[in-house]
Amino acid sequence: MDSDVSERRFLDPFAGKAVSPPPVWLMRQAGRYLPEYRQVRVEAGSFLKLCYTPRLAAEVTLQPIRRFGFDAAILFSDILVVPDALGQTVRFEEGEGPRLDPVQTLADLDRLALSKTGSKFSLVCETVERLRRDLPQETALIGFCGAPWTVATYVVEGRGSADQSAARHWAYRDPDGFQRLIALLTDASIEYLSGQVRAGADALQIFDSWAGSLADDQFERWVIGPTAKIVREVRARHPGVPIIGFPRGAAALLEGYIEGTSVDGVSCDTACPLGLMQQTARNGQVVQGNLDPLLLVSGGDALDRRVDEIRAAMKGLPFIFNLGHGIVPDTPPDNVARLVKRLRSTN
Ligand SMILES: Cc1c2[nH]c(c1CCC(=O)O)Cc1[nH]c(c(CCC(=O)O)c1C)Cc1[nH]c(c(CCC(=O)O)c1C)Cc1[nH]c(c(C)c1CCC(=O)O)C2
């Protein structure tokens, strides 16, 4: 692992240092809005092939760093690599999103196994190793996984859904059976994240994109519990590596999430009020967020104004500038350049 991490300003907020201007990276900063990504994507053939080809996955991770000079790169992979590695069939249909053979019974679940994950996880770790070698010294590298609850919604439903009802039903109907699925995803995520840190990741993010669809008692059991376990186990193996949680849509439960999981930072979604972000950061928590990805599509003066507003609200606090959710494909790359320039234009 690289020893000289001191010059990576992305890590400063986690060491209690206020940084001005704040460090910046954007969720989905690698992806289809970049023509050079689309070219590599065609070369790879399938999306999962891209994730499992270290040379190409590293290349698309580096593309936004070359263009925009973000303070952190995020490993190019996907949250659905975990069920794929466990033995579930996962496909990405062009323009339709992910398709998985749904796991809906204990017999389906028994076909998945932690013992199968080795070869695919090691390809992702090889990408991380390459990246730590090829990234600029000052750029931090973020590894990631999906939170067990969010990954489970895809595993059970077999695709993205509006209300995550298949997973929510299973959790009510047969909590013990559903717990087995969550436990398997939790254990796999611990292995996956630990491997990424061993390979050179400087920080980790746990994406819980569907955290907001659960009743509060269910949130406690399926979001907080498993996330707390991942944080505990990864931290025991790799003390000092910051872990950021992204419980999207759960601003009302943010305090309980932070306390219950003991994450080092929280990524706030677009609907999270700036006042709550300030309050959270004043309590010493690192906060990340939360520009609306659609404002990055429309751009112009309105983009500048909102960038200034978020930055001013979080000034002097442990803050990392980001979006409230991922970049969308029709984002003009020039608007991303404009955002970074605006953010860095003054101290
Ligand atoms: C829910 C989720 C997924 N994947 C992810 C989440 C959590 C964050 C979120 O809520 O957006 C996370 C993810 N997916 C991807 C990354 C790579 C790193 C980065 O942020 O730059 C990360 C961190 C690449 C990707 N993952 C995917 C793409 C686009 C596919 C392509 O290039 O063909 C990329 C760049 C595909 C994907 N992957 C997933 C879906 C639903 C889709 C289809 C939707 C879409 O097409 O945008 C599952």
Automatic annotation (TrEMBL):
Domain of life where this protein originates: Bacteria
InterPro entries: UROD/MetE-like_sf, Uroporphyrinogen_deCO2ase_HemE, Uroporphyrinogen_deCOase
Pfam family, one: URO-D
Coiled coil: none
Gene Ontology MF terms in the entry: uroporphyrinogen decarboxylase activity
Protein's cellular compartments: Cytoplasm
Domain Uroporphyrinogen decarboxylase (URO-D): 23-32, 142-158
Principal location: cytoplasm
Residues where substrate binds: R28, Q29, A30, G31, R32, D78, Y154, S209, H325
GO biological process entries: protoporphyrinogen IX biosynthetic process from glutamate
Annotated family: Belongs to the uroporphyrinogen decarboxylase family.
Entry protein name: Uroporphyrinogen decarboxylase
Organism: Hyphomicrobium denitrificans 1NES1
Designated gene of the protein: hemE
